[in-house]
Amino acid sequence: MKKAIFKRYGLLLWLGLCTSVFAQNPEIKRDSIKIKTQPLFASDDILHVKVVADFKAIQKDRGDTPSYHEALLTYVDNQGDSVQLPVKIRVRGNFRRNSANCNLPPLLLNFPEKKTDKTLFKNQDKLKLVTRCRFEEYVPQEYMVYKLYNLLTDYSFRARLAQITYEDAAGKRKAETSQGFIIEDEEALANRHRTAIRSKETKTSMALTNREGMATVAVLEYMIGNTDWSVPYQHNIKLLEQASGLPMPVAYDFDHAGIVEASYATPAPELNLHTTRERLYRGLAYPEDVFQKVFENFNRAKPQIYALYEGNPNLNPAYVKRTLKYFDDFYKLINSPGAAKSAFMSKQSKGKEVVIKGLNN
What we know:
Elements: H1 2-24, E1 47-53, H2 55-60, E2 69-76, E3 82-91, E4 107-110, E5 126-130, H3 138-152, E6 159-168, E7 176-183, H4 186-192, H5 211-224, E8 237-240, E9 248-251, H6 288-309, H7 317-334, H8 337-345
Parallel strand pairs: 1-6
Antiparallel strand pairs: 1-2, 2-3, 3-4, 4-5, 5-7, 6-7, 8-9
Helix pairs in contact: 3-6, 5-6, 6-7
C-alpha cells in the first residue's frame, strides 16, 4: 500500500516538474521559422582561407572577456575569383584559450550583416574556428568526431575542414599556414531544426531531456572516450528546445576525448581514470529497449564510420589503425548483451554519480 502511494506521488512530482519546464518553454512555432541555407557546409572539400589581423594583439587578449579585433578574411570562390570579407575575430574557449595550454588559441569569427549574401559564408553570423593548438594532427582527429556524429543523427553540429593562413597585419609575426576547422553556429543548428537554443541559465537534468537523444549523446561520448561534458551546466552540450518540453542535447568540443589523443588532455581526477582512452559511461541507466534502439543506430552507421577513417589522406595511417581497433572494442561491447548491461545499465556504472569540481555533476 505504502509503495503504491509512494509511486503515485512520485509520478505526480515528476509530472509537476515537467509541467514547470513546459511552462517556461512554450511550444516553438516551427512553421514560422524559415530555414536558411548554409553553402559553407554543403561540401566536404578543404576550405582554403587567409585571415589578416593584428595577431600580436589577439594573442595577448586572452582574458575572461576578450575583445573583438578587425580582420580581413580572403578565399577563392568556384569561379577562381578572390573574395574578401571584413570580419571581427576574438579569442574564445576555456582550456584552449589559456596560453599555457595552446600557443594558437581557438577563434570566433563574427561576420558583418548583409555583406555575405553572395559569398560562401551566406547566412553565417558567428562561427567557431578550431585552430592548431599544439600539434596540427589533433585538428583532423577532432574534426572526424563531428563527421562521425553527423552519421548518427542530424542533431549534431556541422563542420568544415580548412587550411588557414594567419597573416599579421603589422608584419610583426611570421605568417603561418595550418589546418583548422569551422563549426556551425548554434543559432544555425537551431534554425535547421526550426527551434531555439535553451538558455544556459535554465538548469536541466539529463532526466528531463529527450530520452533517445540523450542516450545517443551519452553512448557517443562513451564510444570516443570523452568524459568532459555536463548537461545541467551545458558544458560542451547545447540543448535544443522541443515541442514536448524535453530538449534535445547536442554535444560539441571533443579535444579531451581519448579518440583525439591530445597530449594535454587528462580525465578529471574525480573519475579515477588513468587516461582519456579509458572509457566510462556518464549517462543515465535507461531501459534496455532505449539502448537497443541506440545500439541499432550505431550498428547501422558502422560501415560509414569505418569508411570515414579508412584511407583518409588527412589522417596518419598508424592513427587510423589505433582508432579502428578502439572502435572494434566499442562495437564488441554494445553487441554483447551482458557487457553492455554492465557498462550502461547496471549500478556498477558510476560515471554519472561522480561529482566533478567546477561542473558540480
